[in-house]
Amino acid sequence: MSDRIEQDSLGELPVPADALYGIQTLRAARNFAVSGLRPLEPFVVAQVWIKKAAALTHRDTGRLDPRRADAIVAAADEVLAGQHREQFIVDPYQAGAGTSHNMNVNEVLANRANELLGAVRGSYAPVHPNDHVNMAQSTNDTIPTNIRLAVLRQLPSLLAAVDALSAALAQKGRDFDGIVKAGRTHLQDAMPIRLGQEFSAYAGTLRRCRRRIIEAADYLNDLGIGGSAVGTGVTVQPEYPHRMVAHLGVISGITTLRVGEDRIQLMQSMGDAAAFSGALRGLAIDLSKIVSDLRLMASGPRTGLDEIVLPAVQPGSSIMPGKINPSIPEMVNQVCFQVIGCDTTVAMAAEHGQLELNVMMPVIAHNVLLSMQLLTNAITALTDRCVTGIEANAAMCAYWVERSAALATALMPQIGYAAAADIAKRSVQEGILIRDLVRREGLLPAQDIDTVLDLFRLTEIGVPSGDRPSAAGG
Asked: Which spans in 386-416 are helix H?
């Protein structure tokens, strides 16, 4: 037979005979055929962690007999080892705060546990998806716990990617420290800056983003598991929350988990997830700015700035031979835009909880986890396929900085603001370098011109004058 008949409170449906999921999952798959997407892997894994921990907890307390508990644990271990992943089929856009996802996991583990005990799929005996796999649990406390666990599971990979990019940018900062270039504000000429200073600042920006992410993530260690239906813990044994957190720590390898002090609050509010999403948004904003800068500095090679050269990773045009585009930074920009959009979705969904529950948790989970996945992969590509291979075009940096009208700023301590502004204007009008114009007009003693307009010195704190030796070359 290709199907088996299963029954729930709404009636009967034919379920594919080889499916580990059951009738409630099938109804959800039909009702929510929206995006064609499957649940993200961390969302599946975290829910299975919870089911395994619950089986172990109930075996510890004697509420669940060892035979059933061990079968549930064995089924969970198979999923955690990578098996049966095709059985998790509910669209991320679903109703009921994640009830469909929770039941999908309950049914898969129940059916597989029964097979391990010699029963057939769909029999739900001796292991029942609600009575045993979901014992003392509710969608309403497992899905908020899932979100926290899934995020914490992905966090090390994201932080490692950020660290690698920060280190690569810092190395470029050291490599390029002796290269002076034109600074630009409002995309107009500004005082000189060293190319290395720019890259070192990018690394510092990422380090600050990292700290904000870690701070936001710490709140996610507080687990509300044991809150049951409305956070009050009805049907839950008093020792259950502490035992659950202990088992989850062992199963997940996350050693920072804590028993939530107020399970009602942790069920009502998605503020912790929203705050973490906001930290991801901050990273995306800063990261997008950095890669936009790289694209701008690499523009050219004849009609742009051409101050840096990005690694060529693919041909840039189907019609213009030899054109090389900043492909990796362009990809990263798009990822950052998506993450910012995901955060907007999370913020709106977090606000739309009512009373004891936020029913928008599935879309919160999907968008936070998607953001982490996208950022981790995009940052890794940016590091490996772009930043580590960036080269400086020192000649173009020197060319542009000497032509910057902003160099007149260095003359202010000697000739005053008005005269310096006039020099800047005349330099542009006549197409003559500030240095040459000062020499021609005799505005400074000849022996002071190169000291006052020492480009390297102008990239350090101090008043341009002849009061200290040049830092150039040292």
From this structure: 394-402, 412-415
Helix, strand, coil share of the chain (percent; to 5): 60, 5, 30
Instruction: With a cut of 80, say whether residue 318 has pLDDT above it.
Output: no
Residue whose entry in the numeric block shows the structure tokens 């090389």? 324
277 exposed, middle or buried (CB, 10 Å; 0-12, 13-18, 19+)? buried
Which residues, 6+ apart, have CB-to-CB distance to 239 below 8 Å? 61
Task: List phi, psi (to 5°) of 463.
Answer: -100, 120
Phi, psi of 12 (to 5 degrees): -110, 150
Residue in the block written with tokens 């929770």 = 102
The C-alpha atoms of residue 309 and residue 324 are separated, in whole angstroms, by: 10
317 is catalytic: yes
* β-bridge partners, 190: 183
Sketch out the chain's domains with CATH numbers: 3-135 (1.10.275.10), 141-394 (1.20.200.10), 403-459 (1.10.40.30)
Q: Residue 317: what pLDDT?
A: 80
At 160, the amino acid letter reads A
Render pLDDT for 220-257 as a digit per residue (tens, 0 to 9): 999 999 999 999 999 999 999 999 999 999 999 999 99
Tokens encoding 14:
């034919």
Alpha helix positions (H), 326-463: 327-351, 361-385, 394-402, 412-415, 417-430, 434-441, 446-452
Nearest to 94 by CA among 25, 12, 151, 48: 25
CA 366, 255, 131, 72 torsion-angle sign = positive
Q: With H, G, I as helix, E, B as strand and everything else as coil, classify residue 461.
A: coil
In the set 35, 166, 317, 371, the catalytic residue is 317
Q: How confident is the model at residue 466 (pLDDT cuts 50, 70, 90)?
A: low
- Which residues make Cβ contacts (< 8 Å) with residue 189, sequence separation at least 6? 182, 183, 404, 405, 406
Alpha carbon distance 467, 399 (integer Å): 27
Burial category of 385 from C-beta neighbours within 10 Å (exposed 0-12, middle 13-18, buried 19 and up): middle
Phi-psi region of 111 (alpha: psi -120 to 50; beta: other; left: phi over 0): alpha
Segment 428-461, tens digit of pLDDT? 999 999 999 999 999 999 989 999 999 999 999 9
Residue 349 to residue 171: CA distance in whole angstroms: 40
Tokens read off for 33 = 């055929």
- Residue 186 CA, chain-centre distance (Å), reads 29
Burial of 381 (0-12, 13-18, 19+ CB in 10 A): middle
